[in-house]
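Students often ask why inverse folding is considered easier than folding. One informal answer: many sequences map to the same fold, so there is more than one right answer. In these notes we will look at a single instance of the problem. The structure comes first.
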Protein backbone atom coordinates (compact mmCIF):
# COMPACT_ATOMS: atom_id res chain seq x y z
CA UNK A 1 0.00 0.00 0.00
CA UNK A 2 1.12 3.52 -0.76
CA UNK A 3 0.14 6.54 1.32
CA UNK A 4 -0.28 9.91 -0.33
CA UNK A 5 -0.84 13.14 1.60
CA UNK A 6 -1.91 15.93 -0.72
CA UNK A 7 -0.15 19.27 -0.44
CA UNK A 8 -2.96 21.00 -2.31
CA UNK A 9 -6.13 22.53 -0.86
CA UNK A 10 -7.74 22.78 -4.29
CA UNK A 11 -10.90 20.61 -4.31
CA UNK A 12 -10.85 20.24 -8.10
CA UNK A 13 -7.35 18.76 -7.91
CA UNK A 14 -7.93 16.57 -4.86
CA UNK A 15 -11.19 15.06 -6.14
CA UNK A 16 -9.61 14.47 -9.57
CA UNK A 17 -6.68 12.72 -7.89
CA UNK A 18 -9.08 10.13 -6.48
CA UNK A 19 -10.18 9.11 -9.95
CA UNK A 20 -6.58 9.15 -11.17
CA UNK A 21 -5.40 6.76 -8.44
CA UNK A 22 -8.45 4.53 -8.93
CA UNK A 23 -8.12 4.12 -12.68
CA UNK A 24 -4.38 4.39 -13.31
CA UNK A 25 -2.69 2.63 -10.37
CA UNK A 26 -2.61 -1.04 -9.47
CA UNK A 27 -1.29 -0.49 -5.91
CA UNK A 28 -3.60 -0.13 -2.95
CA UNK A 29 -3.72 3.53 -1.96
CA UNK A 30 -4.46 5.45 1.21
CA UNK A 31 -4.93 9.11 0.38
CA UNK A 32 -5.53 12.10 2.65
CA UNK A 33 -6.34 15.69 1.78
CA UNK A 34 -7.77 18.93 3.16
CA UNK A 35 -9.75 21.26 0.89
CA UNK A 36 -10.37 24.97 0.99
CA UNK A 37 -14.04 25.85 1.69
CA UNK A 38 -16.05 24.03 -0.97
CA UNK A 39 -19.10 21.85 -1.54
CA UNK A 40 -18.80 18.29 -2.83
CA UNK A 41 -21.94 16.69 -4.28
CA UNK A 42 -22.68 13.04 -4.99
CA UNK A 43 -22.51 11.72 -8.54
CA UNK A 44 -26.27 11.22 -8.89
CA UNK A 45 -27.45 14.43 -7.26
CA UNK A 46 -29.02 17.58 -8.65
CA UNK A 47 -26.28 20.01 -7.68
CA UNK A 48 -28.36 23.17 -7.68
CA UNK A 49 -30.96 21.52 -5.44
CA UNK A 50 -28.33 20.66 -2.83
CA UNK A 51 -26.61 24.01 -2.36
CA UNK A 52 -27.47 27.47 -1.10
CA UNK A 53 -26.86 29.31 -4.37
CA UNK A 54 -26.73 32.89 -2.97
CA UNK A 55 -24.34 31.78 -0.22
CA UNK A 56 -22.14 29.92 -2.71
CA UNK A 57 -21.96 32.97 -4.96
CA UNK A 58 -21.33 35.41 -2.12
CA UNK A 59 -18.53 33.28 -0.67
CA UNK A 60 -17.13 32.16 -4.04
CA UNK A 61 -17.24 28.50 -3.05
CA UNK A 62 -16.09 25.86 -5.50
CA UNK A 63 -18.73 23.19 -6.13
CA UNK A 64 -17.43 19.79 -7.26
CA UNK A 65 -19.20 16.58 -8.24
CA UNK A 66 -17.35 13.49 -7.05
CA UNK A 67 -17.20 10.03 -8.60
CA UNK A 68 -19.18 8.25 -5.87
CA UNK A 69 -22.84 8.43 -4.95
CA UNK A 70 -24.28 9.57 -1.65
CA UNK A 71 -25.04 13.03 -0.34
CA UNK A 72 -23.59 16.51 -0.39
CA UNK A 73 -20.85 17.50 2.05
CA UNK A 74 -19.06 20.70 2.98
CA UNK A 75 -15.27 20.85 3.08
CA UNK A 76 -13.03 23.44 4.69
CA UNK A 77 -9.59 23.61 6.28
CA UNK A 78 -10.97 21.98 9.43
CA UNK A 79 -12.18 18.91 7.56
CA UNK A 80 -9.84 15.99 6.88
CA UNK A 81 -10.76 13.73 3.97
CA UNK A 82 -9.56 10.15 3.74
CA UNK A 83 -9.70 7.75 0.84
CA UNK A 84 -8.93 4.04 0.49
CA UNK A 85 -8.50 2.62 -3.00
CA UNK A 86 -7.95 -1.13 -2.97
CA UNK A 87 -8.07 -4.18 -5.19
CA UNK A 88 -10.56 -6.94 -4.55
CA UNK A 89 -12.83 -9.50 -6.13
CA UNK A 90 -16.24 -8.94 -7.65
CA UNK A 91 -19.01 -9.18 -5.10
CA UNK A 92 -16.68 -8.50 -2.18
CA UNK A 93 -15.59 -4.93 -2.87
CA UNK A 94 -18.15 -2.78 -1.03
CA UNK A 95 -17.43 -2.78 2.70
CA UNK A 96 -18.12 0.42 4.63
CA UNK A 97 -17.23 -1.11 8.00
CA UNK A 98 -13.83 -2.33 6.84
CA UNK A 99 -12.67 1.00 5.43
CA UNK A 100 -14.03 3.20 8.21
CA UNK A 101 -12.60 0.97 10.95
CA UNK A 102 -9.08 2.52 10.98
CA UNK A 103 -10.65 5.92 11.70
CA UNK A 104 -12.76 4.47 14.49
CA UNK A 105 -9.73 2.64 15.92
CA UNK A 106 -7.73 5.87 15.93
CA UNK A 107 -10.46 7.71 17.81
CA UNK A 108 -11.01 4.85 20.24
CA UNK A 109 -7.27 4.93 21.00
CA UNK A 110 -7.79 8.61 21.87
CA UNK A 111 -10.61 7.60 24.26
CA UNK A 112 -13.31 8.93 21.95
CA UNK A 113 -16.33 6.64 21.70
CA UNK A 114 -16.84 6.78 17.94
CA UNK A 115 -18.85 4.17 16.05
CA UNK A 116 -20.52 3.34 12.74
CA UNK A 117 -24.22 4.20 12.59
CA UNK A 118 -26.26 2.62 9.85
CA UNK A 119 -24.47 2.03 6.58
CA UNK A 120 -22.09 4.94 6.22
CA UNK A 121 -22.20 7.50 9.05
CA UNK A 122 -19.52 7.73 11.72
CA UNK A 123 -20.81 9.31 14.92
CA UNK A 124 -19.84 10.41 18.41
CA UNK A 125 -22.67 10.62 20.96
CA UNK A 126 -25.04 10.05 18.03
CA UNK A 127 -23.72 13.19 16.30
CA UNK A 128 -22.28 12.69 12.82
CA UNK A 129 -18.68 13.62 12.12
CA UNK A 130 -18.11 11.58 8.98
CA UNK A 131 -20.09 10.69 5.87
CA UNK A 132 -18.76 7.93 3.63
CA UNK A 133 -19.35 6.79 0.06
CA UNK A 134 -17.93 4.19 -2.32
CA UNK A 135 -17.43 3.66 -6.02
CA UNK A 136 -16.47 0.46 -7.83
CA UNK A 137 -14.27 0.47 -10.91
CA UNK A 138 -13.52 -2.98 -12.36
CA UNK A 139 -11.82 -4.89 -9.54
CA UNK A 140 -11.02 -1.79 -7.48
CA UNK A 141 -13.02 -0.03 -4.77
CA UNK A 142 -12.81 3.64 -3.86
CA UNK A 143 -13.98 4.36 -0.33
CA UNK A 144 -13.81 7.92 0.92
CA UNK A 145 -15.14 9.94 3.79
CA UNK A 146 -15.11 13.30 5.48
CA UNK A 147 -13.76 13.80 8.98
CA UNK A 148 -15.09 16.93 10.64
CA UNK A 149 -12.22 17.83 12.92
CA UNK A 150 -12.50 21.58 13.55
CA UNK A 151 -14.79 22.63 10.73
CA UNK A 152 -16.85 25.84 10.69
CA UNK A 153 -20.19 24.18 11.34
CA UNK A 154 -22.14 27.39 10.90
CA UNK A 155 -20.68 27.77 7.41
CA UNK A 156 -21.41 24.11 6.72
CA UNK A 157 -25.08 24.53 7.61
CA UNK A 158 -25.46 27.68 5.51
CA UNK A 159 -23.64 26.31 2.45
CA UNK A 160 -25.87 23.26 2.07
CA UNK A 161 -29.11 24.87 3.20
CA UNK A 162 -31.47 24.13 0.32
CA UNK A 163 -35.21 23.99 -0.28
CA UNK A 164 -35.97 20.70 -2.06
CA UNK A 165 -39.69 21.53 -2.26
CA UNK A 166 -38.94 23.87 -5.16
CA UNK A 167 -37.57 21.00 -7.27
CA UNK A 168 -39.23 18.14 -9.09
CA UNK A 169 -36.64 15.55 -10.14
CA UNK A 170 -35.45 11.99 -9.62
CA UNK A 171 -32.09 12.91 -8.11
CA UNK A 172 -30.63 11.41 -4.94
CA UNK A 173 -31.33 13.63 -1.93
CA UNK A 174 -28.89 14.19 0.92
CA UNK A 175 -29.71 12.93 4.39
CA UNK A 176 -29.11 15.91 6.68
CA UNK A 177 -27.88 15.03 10.17
CA UNK A 178 -26.80 16.85 13.29
CA UNK A 179 -23.02 17.07 13.20
CA UNK A 180 -20.09 17.54 15.56
CA UNK A 181 -16.35 18.21 15.40
CA UNK A 182 -13.87 15.61 16.59
CA UNK A 183 -11.80 18.24 18.42
CA UNK A 184 -14.68 18.87 20.84
CA UNK A 185 -14.42 15.28 22.12
CA UNK A 186 -10.66 14.95 22.60
CA UNK A 187 -9.16 14.75 26.08
CA UNK A 188 -6.02 16.53 24.87
CA UNK A 189 -6.03 19.09 22.04
CA UNK A 190 -4.53 18.14 18.69
CA UNK A 191 -4.12 19.99 15.42
CA UNK A 192 -5.78 18.55 12.34
CA UNK A 193 -2.37 17.55 11.02
CA UNK A 194 -1.45 15.79 14.28
CA UNK A 195 -4.72 13.89 14.03
CA UNK A 196 -3.97 13.07 10.40
CA UNK A 197 -0.66 11.57 11.46
CA UNK A 198 -2.36 9.40 14.08
CA UNK A 199 -4.73 8.03 11.44
CA UNK A 200 -1.74 7.25 9.23
CA UNK A 201 -0.01 5.45 12.12
CA UNK A 202 -3.09 3.27 12.57
CA UNK A 203 -3.20 2.42 8.86
CA UNK A 204 0.50 1.53 8.88
CA UNK A 205 0.02 -0.80 11.86
CA UNK A 206 -2.89 -2.55 10.16
CA UNK A 207 -1.28 -3.04 6.75
CA UNK A 208 1.86 -4.64 5.39
CA UNK A 209 4.47 -3.03 3.14
CA UNK A 210 3.28 0.54 3.47
CA UNK A 211 5.29 3.36 1.94
CA UNK A 212 4.72 7.07 1.36
CA UNK A 213 4.24 8.37 -2.15
CA UNK A 214 4.99 11.69 -3.83
CA UNK A 215 3.34 12.66 -7.10
CA UNK A 216 5.58 12.63 -10.14
CA UNK A 217 5.45 15.35 -12.76
CA UNK A 218 3.49 13.05 -15.05
CA UNK A 219 1.02 12.31 -12.20
CA UNK A 220 0.42 16.01 -11.68
CA UNK A 221 -0.01 16.64 -15.40
CA UNK A 222 -2.54 13.81 -15.70
CA UNK A 223 -4.51 15.00 -12.66
CA UNK A 224 -4.53 18.58 -13.94
CA UNK A 225 -5.85 17.31 -17.27
CA UNK A 226 -8.72 15.67 -15.37
CA UNK A 227 -9.30 18.96 -13.58
CA UNK A 228 -9.41 20.94 -16.82
CA UNK A 229 -11.52 18.46 -18.77
CA UNK A 230 -13.88 17.30 -16.03
CA UNK A 231 -13.72 18.35 -12.39
CA UNK A 232 -13.62 22.12 -12.85
CA UNK A 233 -16.25 22.17 -15.60
CA UNK A 234 -19.86 23.33 -15.39
CA UNK A 235 -20.79 20.36 -17.59
CA UNK A 236 -19.70 17.84 -14.95
CA UNK A 237 -20.44 19.73 -11.74
CA UNK A 238 -23.88 21.09 -12.72
CA UNK A 239 -25.13 19.93 -16.13
CA UNK A 240 -24.62 16.24 -15.25
CA UNK A 241 -27.61 16.60 -12.90
CA UNK A 242 -30.82 14.74 -13.80
CA UNK A 243 -33.60 16.58 -15.62
CA UNK A 244 -35.58 18.78 -13.24
CA UNK A 245 -38.29 21.39 -12.87
CA UNK A 246 -37.80 24.36 -10.58
CA UNK A 247 -40.49 26.71 -9.26
CA UNK A 248 -40.05 29.74 -7.04
CA UNK A 249 -42.03 32.82 -6.12
CA UNK A 250 -41.07 36.01 -4.30
CA UNK A 251 -43.03 39.05 -3.11
CA UNK A 252 -42.57 42.24 -5.12
CA UNK A 253 -44.02 45.73 -4.64
CA UNK A 254 -47.27 44.97 -6.46
CA UNK A 255 -47.84 41.30 -5.75
CA UNK A 256 -46.04 38.01 -6.30
CA UNK A 257 -43.52 37.23 -9.01
CA UNK A 258 -43.14 33.53 -9.90
CA UNK A 259 -41.00 31.57 -12.32
CA UNK A 260 -41.14 27.94 -13.42
CA UNK A 261 -38.41 26.39 -15.52
CA UNK A 262 -37.67 22.98 -16.99
CA UNK A 263 -33.97 22.08 -17.19
CA UNK A 264 -32.40 19.21 -19.11
CA UNK A 265 -28.64 18.54 -19.13
CA UNK A 266 -28.19 21.91 -17.48
CA UNK A 267 -30.00 23.92 -20.14
CA UNK A 268 -33.35 25.69 -19.76
CA UNK A 269 -35.98 24.07 -22.00
CA UNK A 270 -38.98 26.11 -20.91
CA UNK A 271 -39.75 29.15 -18.77
CA UNK A 272 -42.98 30.60 -17.42
CA UNK A 273 -42.92 33.95 -15.60
CA UNK A 274 -46.07 35.30 -13.96
CA UNK A 275 -47.16 38.22 -11.80
CA UNK A 276 -50.04 37.38 -9.47
CA UNK A 277 -50.60 34.24 -11.60
CA UNK A 278 -50.97 36.31 -14.78
CA UNK A 279 -48.77 36.85 -17.79
CA UNK A 280 -47.47 40.33 -18.64
CA UNK A 281 -46.10 42.33 -21.54
CA UNK A 282 -42.60 41.18 -22.56
CA UNK A 283 -43.12 37.74 -20.94
CA UNK A 284 -42.77 35.94 -24.26
CA UNK A 285 -39.70 37.93 -25.21
CA UNK A 286 -38.08 37.26 -21.85
CA UNK A 287 -38.73 33.54 -22.22
CA UNK A 288 -37.05 33.56 -25.64
CA UNK A 289 -33.95 35.18 -24.13
CA UNK A 290 -33.67 32.43 -21.50
CA UNK A 291 -34.45 29.32 -23.57
CA UNK A 292 -31.46 27.07 -24.30
CA UNK A 293 -29.30 29.02 -21.86
CA UNK A 294 -27.53 27.21 -19.00
CA UNK A 295 -29.30 27.35 -15.64
CA UNK A 296 -26.30 29.19 -14.27
CA UNK A 297 -26.34 32.42 -12.28
CA UNK A 298 -23.41 34.07 -14.04
CA UNK A 299 -24.53 33.09 -17.53
CA UNK A 300 -28.06 34.43 -17.02
CA UNK A 301 -26.72 37.58 -15.39
CA UNK A 302 -24.49 38.28 -18.37
CA UNK A 303 -26.92 37.19 -21.08
CA UNK A 304 -30.14 38.94 -20.11
CA UNK A 305 -29.31 41.90 -17.85
CA UNK A 306 -29.21 44.10 -20.98
CA UNK A 307 -32.76 43.07 -21.83
CA UNK A 308 -34.01 44.78 -18.69
CA UNK A 309 -31.97 47.89 -19.47
CA UNK A 310 -33.62 48.03 -22.89
CA UNK A 311 -37.17 47.48 -21.62
CA UNK A 312 -37.89 49.81 -18.71
CA UNK A 313 -41.58 48.90 -18.71
CA UNK A 314 -40.96 45.42 -17.27
CA UNK A 315 -42.86 45.45 -13.94
CA UNK A 316 -40.04 43.94 -11.88
CA UNK A 317 -36.29 44.33 -11.65
CA UNK A 318 -33.60 42.10 -13.07
CA UNK A 319 -32.46 41.23 -9.54
CA UNK A 320 -36.01 40.20 -8.62
CA UNK A 321 -36.18 37.98 -11.69
CA UNK A 322 -32.85 36.32 -10.83
CA UNK A 323 -34.10 35.57 -7.32
CA UNK A 324 -36.94 33.51 -8.80
CA UNK A 325 -34.50 31.49 -10.89
CA UNK A 326 -32.32 30.12 -8.05
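Output (designed amino acids):
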Amino acid sequence: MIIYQSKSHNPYFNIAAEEYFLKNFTDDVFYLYVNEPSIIVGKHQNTIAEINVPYVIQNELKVVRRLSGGGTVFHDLGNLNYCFIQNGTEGHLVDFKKYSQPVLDTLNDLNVNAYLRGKSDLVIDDLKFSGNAEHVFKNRILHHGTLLFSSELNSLNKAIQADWTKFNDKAVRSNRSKVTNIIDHLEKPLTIYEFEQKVIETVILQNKQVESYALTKSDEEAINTLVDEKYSTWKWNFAYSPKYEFKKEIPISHGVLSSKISVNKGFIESLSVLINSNSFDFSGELEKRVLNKPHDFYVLKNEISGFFDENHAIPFTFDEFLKTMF
